[in-house]
């Protein structure tokens, strides 16, 4: 006879939802998107120009280029200089920008260290993967660089540090920028919020009573020029998320925005963001998140450009001139 506890167990048995074990990184990404357990951000959302582009951007391994490192170094020196040593280390030798072997060697050594191999064995394995000839000892100069990255810090050269220290010191001495910095409630403020079924995370460079200020290192410091650049780089998506984030978390019901633009020639500019651009930016985020939900709900992960258009027609641009028939009227 069946034991009492087994009978109860069978009676209360509910079929478990089948657990799908993703077979590849791509399947894992699709699974996580379907279950809405991926944290969204401006850098992900701005890639939704087509489902294919979005998926490719999320599958690409995260790498930081020199521009990104320079931008975050400038932010740290400008807003939180006291945290420099927690985030960066000045190193003498870095992999050569032009040497794929050195870059591959660094990347593979870091992967082996992550897997728990000792530094020496990690280096030997990585060397074998990237070099047919030569001596491992020639690459010892990169030890400091590799161990710094492994510790979670970024590496900067003395030259880069000196350059950005001069630029940010110059900015801090400008009276109108000093005025902005003195109004700060917090710097590099991380905000996490839920919107339309997704968890979002954003970081505000500077939070103030009026809203927020975003610092951008850019070649386009002129207001009009940056205005064009802003749309090209998807910064409107970022503005919209900052505004929504502040509203949803209750930090500010109607945040205003300003930019601190600067380049490496000591130019700077402090434009504010117009109401019309702020409204457009929020609408753009709402629209993109609706597209994201449509794509995920319809499992349209392989769809391309036409998927996001109701009318998919090429029209004659306004700037294409007509024909000059006057020449026949001799």
Shape: globular
Strand order of the largest sheet: 3-4-5-6-7
Percent range for β-strand residues: 5-15%
Arithmetic mean pLDDT: 91
Largest sheet: 5 strands, mixed
Low-pLDDT stretches are: 8-20
Topology:
Elements: H1 4-11, H2 25-34, H3 42-45, H4 51-59, H5 66-79, H6 84-87, E1 88-90, H7 100-114, H8 119-130, H9 143-150, E2 154-156, H10 158-172, H11 175-182, E3 184-195, E4 198-208, E5 211-217, H12 223-232, H13 235-248, E6 256-262, E7 268-269, H14 275-297
Parallel strand pairs: 1-2, 5-6
Antiparallel strand pairs: 3-4, 4-5, 6-7
Helix pairs in contact: 5-10, 7-8, 7-9, 13-14
Descriptive overview:
α5 (66-79) crosses α10 and α13 packs across α14 (275-297). The protein has 14 helices and seven strands. The protein has 330 residues and is an alpha/beta fold. It has a five-stranded mixed β-sheet with strand order 3-4-5-6-7, sandwiched between helices. The model is unreliable at 8-20 (pLDDT under 50). Helices cover 47% and strands 14% of the residues. β6 (256-262) and β7 form a beta hairpin. The chain starts with a helix and ends in a 33-residue tail after the last helix. The chain has helices at 4-11, 25-34, 42-45, 51-59, 66-79, 84-87, 100-114, 119-130, 143-150, 158-172, 175-182, 223-232, 235-248, 275-297, and strands at 88-90, 154-156, 184-195, 198-208, 211-217, 256-262, 268-269. The radius of gyration is 26 Å and the shape is globular.
């Amino acid at each position: 006879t069946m034991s009492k506890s087994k009978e109860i167990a069978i009676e209360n048995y509910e079929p478990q939802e089948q657990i799908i074990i993703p077979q590849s990184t791509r399947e894992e990404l699709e699974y996580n998107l379907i279950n809405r357990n991926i944290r969204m951000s401006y850098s992900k959302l701005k890639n939704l120009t087509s489902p294919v582009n979005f998926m490719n951007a999320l599958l690409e391994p995260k790498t930081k280029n020199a521009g990104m490192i320079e931008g975050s170094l400038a932010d740290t020196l400008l807003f939180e200089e006291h945290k420099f040593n927690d985030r960066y280390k000045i190193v003498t030798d870095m992999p050569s920008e032009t040497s794929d072997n050195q870059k591959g060697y660094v990347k593979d050594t870091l992967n082996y260290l992550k897997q728990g191999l000792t530094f020496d064995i990690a280096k030997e394995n990585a060397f074998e993967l990237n070099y047919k000839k030569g001596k491992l000892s020639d690459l010892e100069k990169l030890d400091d660089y590799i161990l710094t990255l492994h510790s979670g810090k970024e590496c900067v050269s003395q030259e880069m540090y000196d350059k950005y220290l001069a630029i940010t010191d110059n900015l801090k001495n400008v009276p109108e920028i000093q005025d902005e910095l003195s109004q700060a409630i917090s710097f590099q403020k991380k905000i996490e919020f839920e919107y339309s079924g997704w968890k979002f995370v954003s970081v505000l460079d500077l939070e103030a009573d009026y809203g927020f200020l975003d610092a951008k290192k850019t070649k386009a410091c002129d207001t009009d020029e940056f205005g064009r650049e802003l749309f090209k780089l998807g910064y409107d998506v970022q503005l919209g998320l900052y505004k929504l984030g502040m509203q949803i978390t209750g930090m500010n019901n109607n945040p205003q925005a300003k930019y601190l633009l600067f380049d490496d020639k000591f130019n700077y500019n402090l434009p504010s963001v117009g109401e019309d651009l702020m409204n457009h930016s929020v609408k753009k985020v709402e629209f993109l998140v609706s597209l994201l939900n449509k794509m995920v709900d319809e499992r349209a992960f392989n769809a391309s450009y036409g998927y996001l258009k109701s009318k998919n027609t090429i029209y004659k641009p306004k700037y294409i001139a007509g024909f000059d028939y006057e020449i026949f009227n001799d």
